[in-house]
Amino acid sequence: MEERRDFIMKIVAGKNSASFSSNSGKVNTHETLLKNVLVHQVFFWLKDPDNQEARNEFEKGLQMLSTAPQILSSHIGTPVASARTVVDDSFTYSFLAIFRNKEDHDLYQNHPIHLQFLKDCQPLREKVLIFDAMD
Amino acid sequence: MEERRDFIMKIVAGKNSASFSSNSGKVNTHETLLKNVLVHQVFFWLKDPDNQEARNEFEKGLQMLSTAPQILSSHIGTPVASARTVVDDSFTYSFLAIFRNKEDHDLYQNHPIHLQFLKDCQPLREKVLIFDAMD
Hints:
homodimer
């Protein structure tokens, strides 16, 4: 898994190295909006979130999942603790995947890499919650 | 608002134009993982989601919010309808913001742009749900 972590896609380029376009010819250096994408946001609650073996297995699954060819970019996260009532920090893992469109998302759902993830990791989780959004 | 939409940051570069790094010297063209970021995922339910005036006001607020200087990249979305029980497509708007770290996230929370958004848009929403995740 550590070797996988060494493959890092540098797409969070930030303001300094990114390109901007504007019909007006002006450049708004604060504009950072992603457009024409489908954002797939998944939150997992493991059955036994303190079980390191289960966590390792799940992380390995998420790492593999992130290699599905339809994904433009992805993020595997754990919660940032918060005392705010509007923040849900109870999940065990999050998985964010950005697709070009609904078609790519649907292809991903049935791709062998995703099906393998479901087979390996579904038994480990208690609950999953998904939000899909398009601009 | 339409003019704002013309400012498009081209950071969803996809596999063909992105840079990769690897300690092993190999390139995994499927690797798309964002690393060393905080992913701030917010879902809003408006009090009156069918009120176009309220929607316009809220969208304007989100567009302004996306200009907060701490944000590396962001996405404003509406739900993709789904019949799957694990998918929550009941929200009105989603807002995804990627920060470099917790410090930038905390600065954003107290930034005038965010405070203005809360002042203008908080009265329009029934419910908000936030998930913050770091790798």
